[in-house]
Amino acid sequence: MPTDISFAIDRYDRHFPFFDGTLDLPDSLHLTVFQAGETSAQRDGAHRHKRMLQDGEFDAAEVSFSSFIMAKARGLPFSAIPAFPRRLFSQTQMYVKSDSDITEPSALAGKRIGLQSFQTTLAVLAKGDLHYEYGVDLKSVTWVTRANETVSFEPKPGWDIEYIDADADLGIMLANGEIDALFFSRAPTTLETGSVRRLFSDPKAACGDFYGRNGFFPIMHIIAIKDEVIAANSDLPRQLLDLYHQAKTIAETYMDDPGWSQLPWARIMREEQSKIIGTDIWPVGFSENRKNIERFIGYSHNQELIDRRLEPEELFHESVLDS
Fold first, then answer.
1. Do both 114 and 191 map to the same domain?
2. Is the whole model's pTM more than 0.90, yes or no?
């Protein structure tokens, strides 16, 4: 009988092969795939990160990269595979009020900036980029943060963190001038009404500049597996990693058909993107992602979310480190 593994992931295009039966699974493995969101409910609910890292509800799941690093630093019983189903450039996710005189990241020093949570991966990435790429002292900023941390932590002295209600609408707070900027992993509804705008006037160029300096598309999510499940199924990390290689190959063919997406210029935009930041910005495996992983661990350590700078190898099961 095949081993039945519960696997919770979001329904991105790169995950379609896990839902539509196009993957060639080994005979020894059966996946029960849950379509679970994080900030919004899907077929199988929301709050996927907490359901995995706090409750251990699934055998394997897509989780916040930041929260996973914090969990590993605290000795929680999870290991990862180097498959990264969500990535974002922070330069596309920094917002200010439409009539704000803030036009560059360096002007955010001393301001009030809204975050989903202090440890949300986009928040850690954007804070890290704000300091590392644009020279802002992070402790000069008041971080206005919704009280919904996935892994509990006590902020170290020197950080100015103002916690607000977990259901506060940060986009409206920005439009009303209660905060000066917002670092957010989604587009706030106030962007569509025209009351807020992106900080960078040309976010695609800003992303291209970041990629040119650093050579990677920043990681947002990682695939975590419970250690007890790996102990009972030693082949599982490698099997799941192989499935991610398969899924990547399949998903890369989708836009061969220019009518695949609802967006009429999707294929043209992919061609433009390839000229700016290359054709393979979603690598699967450890070696090609090591620099990306190491940078983010540094951000987490500098923001005092972890007490020591972990080595990238410490995050992953030993069977996939040669990938």
1. yes
2. yes
